[in-house]
Amino acid sequence: MAENSEIKVKSLQKALEILNYFTEKPILGVTEISEHFGLYKSTVHNILSTLKAMEYLEQDEASGKYCLGMQIFNLSKALGDTYSITKIAMPYMQEIANQTGERVYLAVPYREEVLYLEAMYPADSVELMRSILGERARMYCTGLGKAMLANMGEQEIQNYLEHQELEAFTENSITNKEQLYQDLVRTRQRGYAIDDMEHEFGIKCIAMPVFSRNGSLYAAISISGLATHFTEKNISEWAIILKKYVRKIESRL
Amino acid sequence: MAENSEIKVKSLQKALEILNYFTEKPILGVTEISEHFGLYKSTVHNILSTLKAMEYLEQDEASGKYCLGMQIFNLSKALGDTYSITKIAMPYMQEIANQTGERVYLAVPYREEVLYLEAMYPADSVELMRSILGERARMYCTGLGKAMLANMGEQEIQNYLEHQELEAFTENSITNKEQLYQDLVRTRQRGYAIDDMEHEFGIKCIAMPVFSRNGSLYAAISISGLATHFTEKNISEWAIILKKYVRKIESRL
DNA sequence: AATGGTGTTCAGTAAAAAAGAACAGGATTA
DNA sequence: TAATCCTGTTCTTTTTTACTGAACACCATT
């Protein structure tokens, strides 16, 4: 099968670019959009009208401005069902967060990157919880990524090492391929990955792979927090907690 | 401002209808889509290519089939930020679910309907959790809806009663407008709404409104479960639990 | 080696989207 | 109270482009 992804329907491209603009500004008007894209107001109006009729956008009756509509919900729901692990894992993640007092993250491997699905904070946390769904990170410098990488096939690992540039995010980032490989070997033996401030200075993390029924790598879950919280004692305790809930999640996949 | 929502860009309509079809079937091919819509394969191919280039779809390299892409994540994230209450409420909802052993729902009023945002089950629940985001229900026959309705302006309530047809979902559904109004008065006095198998037979529910900082109705949260679990004692206990966590949520909105 | 199934390509032609100005209505200002 | 300046919307002509329809390339099964 050929892998071609050209733009062949220009009016569609235009409409989607306009739709994408709503991810930056939630409320937009015809004039603002036409100025931003250098399009005629009538053109923009036609596109917005159609998007509205298809319920991809809604229009405020008073101001005439547009915002994202309900059909986006339906699409995201359909996409979310692909990652049903989120729904299964959430209550367990909350438990882990409560028991450890740290943040808990869920992510899946996606095109050699870490794709975050969900984050859970301790119940008493006063932090603002903004959605992490869709965020991405490198594999080699995050606990989640290393937990995934370590449990992929040897061929995939070699492939990754070959063409992944190991850029330093902090002074602790692993930038040497042999060193990274050794870390992955240890990660696999240990059963969980350790991110020792490799992605963000002052933040440590332990991460465990989640396997699907057939034994293949499916996701990873991490406990992440201030480096000072990561004592020897805590790490070993948390690893046990993590293992316990990962098992529960795996049994329901 | 005029309220017009005609289809004016037909190629866009076609593309969005195709995109919507992915909410029914997560994986689709050119042939299947062209047969379903009665379009030429080349037409479908052009649209799919463009959607793929814009990352609204992804293509499996092996099979050539298409599925929803990452850009949907970004859109849903932008839409989700509009309803940030979900993120705030989730850990509390989990707590309520754990403490009561019942399911907990979060919804907002949307165009005189109940728009579900999130559901939480007890941590030990073995039920499959499928996403409820985007589901809708009538206001007059659900606990959530009655909790909302009771706390809207008198004018809005009268308006609702005037043109909402009270269709019976179960034999307990309220189909009389005067009766519904009295129920709303009692709901407001009581501080929470009771759904006595009015939407689904055998399922009861108590629901409490969530107010925003300025005192206006913002959402509602409900505890829902088998009718047999809803003893006098449980209801009064659960109402206290609900109130406690609704207060916490309101303080963080 | 032949068949039936994909997804993809490419021509001409028919259809529709864009240009560009004019319109309608509300809000602000004189 | 009237003029101005914003909106979003409408309309017709022209130009663009998306659709038709068949042929192609590829893979898997027969």
Tally of structural domains of chain A: 2
Overall mean confidence score, pLDDT of chain A: 89
CATH class of the largest domain in chain A: Alpha Beta
Q: What structural class is derived from the secondary structure elements of chain A? A: alpha+beta
Described by its quaternary structure, the protein is homodimer
What is the H level of CATH, i.e. the homologous superfamily of the largest domain in chain A?
Answer: GAF domain
Q: What general form of chain A does the structure show?
A: elongated
Rg over CA atoms of chain A: 22 Å
Largest sheet of chain A: 6 strands, antiparallel
List keywords for this structure.
alpha+beta; homodimer; DNA-binding; six-stranded antiparallel β-sheet; 253 residues; Beta-Lactamase; two-stranded antiparallel ribbon; 2 domains; Arc Repressor Mutant, subunit A
Describe the structure concisely:
Chain A is of the alpha+beta class. Chain A has helices at residues 10-21, 30-37, 41-53, 71-82, 85-100, 143-150, 154-163, 177-190, 232-252, and strands at residues 57-59, 66-68, 103-110, 113-120, 136-138, 193-196, 203-211, 217-226.
Topology:
The structure is a homodimer of 253-residue chains.
Chain A: H1 10-21, H2 30-37, H3 41-53, E1 57-59, E2 66-68, H4 71-82, H5 85-100, E3 103-110, E4 113-120, E5 136-138, H6 143-150, H7 154-163, H8 177-190, E6 193-196, E7 203-211, E8 217-226, H9 232-252
Antiparallel strand pairs in A: 1-2, 3-4, 3-8, 4-5, 6-7, 7-8
Chain B binds a DNA duplex (30 and 30 nucleotides) through helix 3.
